[in-house]
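Amino Acid Chain and Its Fold in Token Form
===========================================
Structure side: the spatial fold of the chain, written down as a series of whole-number tokens.
Position: the record begins directly beneath this header, with no further notes in between.
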Amino acid sequence: MNAELRTGYTTGSCAAAAAKAAALALVYGTVAHHVTISLPRGGRVTLEVSRVEIGEHCCRAEVIKDAGDDPDVTHGLTIAAEVSLQEGEIFITGGPGVGTVTKPGLAVPVGQAAINPVPRQMIEREVREVLGPGRGARVVISAPGGEEVAAQTMNPRLGIVGGISILGTGGIVRPMSEEAYRRSLVPQIDQALALGYRRLVLTPGRLGVNKAGELGLPPAAVVETSNFIGAMLEECAQRPVEAVLLLGHLGKLVKVAAGIFHTLGRLADARRETIAAYAALQGAPRHVIEALMTMNTADEAVEILKNCGLSRVFHRLAAAASRRAAWYVRDKFRVGTLMYALSGEIVGYDEGARQIGGQLGWQIELK
């Protein structure tokens, strides 16, 4: 039996713990090696403090981010807090390695450090516990090396520049949390809406983002879904989205045509069967169907169908993907689909794609 996976702590919890340790050093001269903080949803946890520096007017403490067994890119990053006394309230801002928000639509206003509301509340609560009533403080959260780490996150897409975000709604990182990853994708939708887009482009990954750029689609309207196409369609349906263009590699979007909305291969894979079925409906002979059913990759279908004059099968698959997606969200908005091969060749699209892409100003002419 596999050992139970180990939980870890969010950057928000680490920041709150570092801020508390720095406040203890400032107010009491205490060098804490561990601090206990409250979690947003109840309960308390104790985190190790890796370093405390005591100054006359400002103290600094550091906590090493421990993500447990979750493959979090911020695992091992130092989260630091500098605390100094000041008149008034507790003011929280970001230092080196913590990003700055430059685009609207996120939980933090433009121009502020990317420290989300729940972590801010956690930091303020822990510092207030040490200070007591009536005293204010300036708290600067930093993350040395955070700018390099942020390049591996969604921050560049979201317009968060200069570093990581301080995140976490529960304070605890659950190992291999698919739900947490899915939630991290949703702010793209809110940001696109805040920038005035009601027609969005949903694409599974970076290849699709690059393809959207080649087509001249506005970058701010492009939303990465990873394998969570269905979940992201549902998120769109809960917001004032008017239309969605599904744009992606044929291997992903053929699955949507089959009604598969979580496209991770090990969960469900009906690419061969779906392409073969639609080819059969177009009158493909038996040897073509057999070739489709034994192909190693979905891209092989492009040449197989082209060689027998059945390339339009991909147009029917695109239309099927749009119908399935529209049904999935109970026709809350229009859907169009455009799919391409790894070579970059556009192989399938429907009328919905033509209309929505045109409204978004893409710079191509479809045959």
User: Anything to note?
Assistant: The chain has a mean pLDDT of 94. The longest strand covers residues 78-86. The longest helix spans residues 11-28.
